[in-house]
Specification:
alpha/beta, 10 helices, Rossmann fold, 7-stranded mixed beta sheet, 2 domains, about 20% helix
Amino acid sequence: MQRPESLRAAIAGSHADLLGRHLHVNLAEMGRVLTADLTGARVLLRTSDQLFAALALIELDGVAARIVICPPDVKPDHLPSVIERAAIDVVVGEDPALALEGMRFEELHPPVPGAAVAVSRKTEWVLFTSGTTGAPKMVAHTLEGLTGAIRPATADDVVWGTFYDIRRYGGLQILLRALLGHASLILSDANEDVAGFLARLAPVTHLTGTPSHWRRALMSPANARVNPRYVRLSGEIADQAVLDSLKARFPEAAIGHAYASTEAGVGFEVTDGLEGFPASFIGRPGAVEMKVENGTLHIRSPRTASEYVGGGALLNDGWVDTTDMVEQRGARFYFVGRTGGIINVGGLKINPEEVEAVINRHPDVRASRVSGRKNPITGAIVVADIVANDNATLKEEILALCREKLPAFKVPAMLRVVPALELTAGGKISRA
């Protein structure tokens, strides 16, 4: 498909709706959400509501020189560094409480009639990477790169829903899919419980989230209200247990899990119902190239970010090291964890996600998180926190399963049943 020159051009002729928890906007009536003309400005987009972020992106793309999309979990103490590195001119948000001392602030408001500011440039889109500590890293994208993997659904009745936050890469991809396909989109709210959001998702035909999002949804009786015909997972390893659970709950739906990262862009989608991906993906020709070096997946494509904003090399001869570790077993590669998350037990290395995949196979387990706990003898021991159904012999059964599937040093030394696992703002299990 031909890529739009701007988001405003992409929605021309659309009658779709953007639906937040408290505000709905029909794109056919999309007027102005800013009174100021920010042509050529470098903008920090700082909103408390996702819908206002979406409206601001439509208005500012092709107008602002740079848009830095601030996710909700960025610490205020880090914002001065962000502003300096990104050379920000103006902060944009829907609440004056989001203004920053010493910075120009422009307030967003619900759309009012008014002619759009003329598109005059290619806007640089800046996104925050996930999983960083300290000052957050930012990477630069173009609209062309961000939409490179999108093939909009063509049916007239498509309604997207997403558990993601659109101010991070995964959620932004769904916003762009909806806008380019002239499809409606239902957005989540951080202050809304799972059951409430599932009730609002009743009209959706296409629903997306991380595996952790989906595990929470499957635990809620309110999931009976939704019946999507397309289910998509990304952002974390999609193990066989969650794929099988989704297929059992939505037997008529097409289920796919995608690989993407903020730095590398969208890599590929797997639709065969199996975890991992075919080994034939590695080295195959095409717009997206993939290779494995030192056990980690590397990607080169037109969809990758161009640079880290404010310094730091991102690409090596066009390749991005994703830091996601993969392991080939037969004709398939499997994700086994990230290079920064390894647990060291007496010199032996353990990937938490590998152990979680085994634990999650137990039929009474709804979610798990494996971590290391300091130990004076071995350096660390393996601990597993588990969300599960009532089962008097659960711990014994899980340990037996782990002993059957894993080497002895990877078997958890401690199992703890917990009511819930904390998720990050990006919908991933919090490993802090």
